[in-house]
Design a protein that fits this description.
With about 280 residues, this protein is an all-beta fold. The protein has one helix and 16 strands. The chain has a six-stranded antiparallel β-barrel. A six-stranded antiparallel beta barrel has the order 9-10-11-16-13-12.
Length: about 280
């Protein structure tokens, strides 16, 4: 995993499982050509990860806003295999960024609405503010979750609020199963090699360049070419064949979250079409 970073001072050192950053000023890879310029508006910086303010297509202006990140970025620690957190109290804070990557305000959670590292690697925080309040105070709209599965070849941008950096590449394909240490994720997005994400980019939204919608959440990569170990995920196909791709990074699709969001942005794991793991 692109392991969370610990503290401002330590984040300048080689920290973390996952391709850890050397220093914050490390040069970003040259971006590939893309259809639209993806910026940082609506992304957030966590204390140790990246994230974004997101909405479902059906979300309303007066609904409490949601922040999307990784399950392994939770302040409660990594959820164990099979563990699912729902409606856990939280007062975590997030720095909201504008298009240029400048911090414009602090958002605060009221709870962890959902979090897991089983089948996917995702966390959703419910905020104390609504989408309308955020837009009124900061002029920033939430990013919309795409309700459709992304296609192979889709041009994408990974936008890291922690590092205020973007990574541009394409969807190279999908891993039927992605195994890393104790965890297994389903139907993961595999990037082309141009997206060389690093520690601290965990939880970044993966944005379809053509639509501006969120199609996945960045979470891991194979650092050393090892097989299915921590920081070295491997792909497993339908027949059990294992493939290791050193230096390749991955994300978890987010279209499956949309059917699980009911009125008021409430997580309802019993809604029709919702396939997120239950506690």
């Amino acid at each position: 995993m692109k392991k969370p970073l610990v503290g401002a001072f330590l984040s300048a050192l080689l920290l973390g499982a996952g391709a850890a950053p050397a220093v914050a000023a490390e040069a970003a890879p040259a971006p590939e050509a893309r259809a639209t310029a993806v910026d940082f508006a609506g992304t957030v910086a966590l204390s140790n990860c990246s994230g974004s303010v997101v909405r479902a297509p059906s979300s309303q202006p007066d609904d409490p806003a949601l922040v999307l990140s990784n399950g392994h970025c939770l302040e409660t620690g990594f959820p164990g295999p099979g563990q699912v957190l729902v409606d856990r109290a939280s007062t975590r804070s997030f720095t909201l960024l504008n298009a240029a990557g400048g911090g414009v305000g602090t958002l605060r959670a009221s709870k962890i609405a959902y979090g897991t590292m089983t089948d996917t690697d995702v966390s959703l925080y419910q905020l104390t503010t609504t989408y309308a309040q955020i837009e009124s105070s900061y002029g920033i709209k939430a990013l919309e979750l795409d309700s459709a599965r992304p296609a192979q070849g889709t041009a994408i941008t990974v936008a890291s609020g922690y590092w205020k950096r973007t990574y541009s590449c394409a969807v190279d394909g999908f891993a039927y199963r992605l195994k890393e240490g104790s965890w297994t994720w389903k139907d993961s997005v595999r990037y082309t090699s141009a997206c060389q994400t690093i520690g601290g980019t965990s939880g970044s939204p993966v944005i379809d360049d053509a639509t501006g919608k969120v199609v996945a959440v960045n979470n891991t990569g194979n650092e050393d070419g090892r097989r299915c170990t921590d920081n070295n995920p491997c792909e497993v196909d339908e027949n059990g064949a294992v493939t290791v791709r050193k230096g390749i990074n991955y994300a978890q699709q987010t279209y499956g979250i949309v059917p699980c969001l009911g009125p008021g942005n409430r997580i309802d794991l019993d809604r029709t079409g919702c396939a997120l793991p239950k506690p």
